[in-house]
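Anyone have tokens for Oxygen-insensitive NADPH nitroreductase? Sequence:
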Amino acid sequence: MNPTIELLKSHRSIRKFTDQKIPRELLLELVRAGQAAATSNHVQAYSVIHVTDPAKREMIAELAGGQGYIASCSDFLVFCADMKRPTEASERTGAKVVRGMTEQLLVASIDAALMAQNVVVAAESEGLGICYIGGLRNNPQQISDLLALPDHVYPVFGLCLGYPAQDPDVKPRLPVEAILMENTYREEDGQVAAFDATMNRYYSERSGGNKDTDWSRNLQPLFDTKLRPHMRDFLVKRGFEMK
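Reply: yep, here.
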């Protein structure tokens, strides 16, 4: 395989970082690489908040569920879905802008995710480690207030960046046969059970035999409770009415 494919397949989440700082120009290059990602109709419906204030990073770490690496990584970015900039730009041309459409929410969220993944690949190509922080959505209003986000902008997730101080194994993924289908959807036919066995071995080896779980059991907290039920009301208040 070529080096790009090998890099993509070697991704790990890094949660321990050295004290070495990312050079400012490298960080800017990573963001520029992010901007080169595909974007729906060239809308570029994202903004990135570089959180440099240590106190704010400590507060975000707590709001995101006590994730201390938000404070200890070299740089922390918050990727925001931003429909404020493009709708206002269109409005200045005389367009009668319709706000709050569900498609606008999807476009902005997808644009932000595509941009962030470009940043991640660029960062890992430079030997950096990363960790996505979806825990921002635990307390999205407090995060928005802390970062002074206006209406029609919401924090999708955060991203820790830094030089790794750990070397974890690559976490297994479902076999490609389980997720790659031809022409029509194919019902699950046994790959999940096999993958559960793979993940059980992975967790056992990683924990020295102290963790007995698998992929399916790890999904329970996502589906046996109403996960982040506040998000819909929060998004509507931000101007993403999902009309």
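The longest strand covers residues 153-162.
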